Model the fold of this input.
Amino acid sequence: MACTAQSALAYVESARVHLVGELKNLSVIVENLYQQGVFQDEEVSEIQAEKHDYNKTRHILNSVIKKGEKACYMFLKIIDTTRKRTLGRPTPLPERNTEPAFDLHYWISCFSFKEDPQTDVEYFQGSRPCHEYQRKLKMKTRKISSEFWTANKRLFGENNKPDLSYTPLVLDTQESVSPYKIKKYKNKKSRMSRPKKMKKYLPVDRPEISPSELLKTDKNILLVGQPGIGKTALAHEMLKLWAERDNKDLDYMFYFDMRNTLITSTMSLDDLLFCVFSEPDRGKEEVLQDIKENSDNVTMIFDGLTDLSSSVVRRLVEKDLLPYAKVIVTCRPDDEEDFLSENFLKMEVNGFSEQTIKTYLSAMLGDEQKKVLSNLELFTLCHVPMYALMVAACFSEDSPQPCTITEIYINIVRSCLQMNSNKTRNKDLNSFITNKCEEILRLAEVAFHATEGKTVNLPEMPCEDSCVLSFLKPLFIKAALTETITTYAFLHYTMQEFFAALWLLKNPDKIKDVLQQCLTEEKKHMKHVIPFLCRLLSEKSPCLMKCLIPAQEIKNTSKWFFKEMINTFFASGLDVDILFLCQCLYESQCPEACIYLLDKLEYRLDLSGESLDPNLCCAVAYVVTQSKERKISLNLEDVMVSEQGMRQLSGCLQNVQWYV
Ligand SMILES: Nc1ncnc2c1ncn2[C@@H]1O[C@H](COP(=O)(O)OP(=O)(O)OP(=O)(O)O)[C@@H](O)[C@H]1O
Done:
């Protein structure tokens, strides 16, 4: 708001008396005048030697006035660009009881600066130690954010490391309604068709709220979301964006991974900032003072906050310590109640939308993505970014073992447990899982009963264990004014089915019943548990199983299971769902079971009129390839198959004799 054309000299002189009393951060003014060549070393030393700020200010003003118009202009320019620190915080209007005698903020905004040809002049906003500390924080935040993605890259094979980075997430503000949240408690059987049920998990794209907008807003933010939904990824994106910003503003950003950081209840602010996060190389006091006096330049992220037991964290969240600092808290829905206040803008993190899943998979898998796109269960599972990551990692694996669908779930379970176990190392993960066996099987039991009842609402809370809870999302139902009931559901229905299969493994006497249930109209949905069971019972029984169920028990069950399964479906008198059996046998990776099925089919596979997605093609090709002695009569008349599916099938054609 430039409104005067006075000379700089006259302008400074006219306000001299007010400046003497009110200028702050004198070292910043002196440093900038020195950098601009207005002051020389000797003058700087003289000013520094003055004992009182009042005298220092007088000395600075006298000198620039004496040096004339150019020096005064530079002085005004410095005050203008550093005004937040050198003129102090402007008093908000309602807080003013009396008319201020002279408003220096208004005064500086009225000076008409020339169009500056030298736009790249950088002014120091604070003392050198403060700027150095800002640089140090930027290096640290850049490192933290790149380490986050590097850790994910380790999941991928040496030749398949994708370029992992932030993919936009669906973020809902308090006002908008979350699409996948279950609104009412319905412990009834779902009447929804399976595809419809699956699609319900996909959050609807909203007008995008970008991490950079979140970073810009002055508001405090509470990011709430289910485990693995992307809260930390979003926080790291903000760290990265901040680190990449130019350094025109002197500001600070701190990040605390609350799950892996010990913040004691007696810690002070400087302990938290300097000991826990990063220590200034020099001028600790000066830096702390700048942070306290200019707390509007501070952003603090508390990632994965569960409680406010640490007094320093509580006082920061409650704006008691750094009242103008921006605080960003991420938490799971279970804990949100503790932090929700009107100080915070609540945002729900809802994971990937349909479109972003496609973008993500295409970047990660290229053409292989079609295997996921054609499988609605897997596709919708990917709305949880953590699950999407495992899907991508499993499909990109160039191991000799083909990737079965169950393999993906096993990996998801293992990595969820690892992430929620205070960073258990890979080599210790099996013993960690063994120790959690009881809790995991308790979850599996609850999952089985819910699946049998065809509901997503778990009838009871399996246990309080945070590892187990990382597979679930809570639903809060207000039962009365002072009573809230919490029920839980899996983040995706197929995860529930996977755990149901785990329970069956521990209770093999129930398996025959379940196989029979698959043939009934009322319980036919139990069929979806069977492919998981096939893989879990396979001879190449994956590690997860050995930690939970003794190998001998698995072996005993698998001895009879595959034949029993095939016989049950053949004995039903109904049309045998060959494709379903192929899928089960592909999961099992069991050649003998394939031969048993082919035998039953008299080596004739009639798939005419079927629609085969690439995964089914893979399964059919696997079964056909197992027949070493006899060729298979394969009928593919009027079959719908994609180019990729055809490629899968072509691998088994040497075993085929065409159906006539
Ligand atoms: N926006 C995203 N873009 C790409 N990948 C993502 C994104 N969000 C999450 N991911 C992937 O999912 C994994 C889990 O996400 P993240 O750690 O952010 O979940 P979270 O919500 O913080 O979970 P928790 O409550 O368990 O802390 C990440 O390691 C990352 O690989």
Notes: Confidence is low (pLDDT under 50) at residues 176-183. Residues 152, 166-167, 169, 225, 227-233, 304, 332, 385-386, 389, 419, 470 surround adenosine-5'-triphosphate (CB under 6 Å).
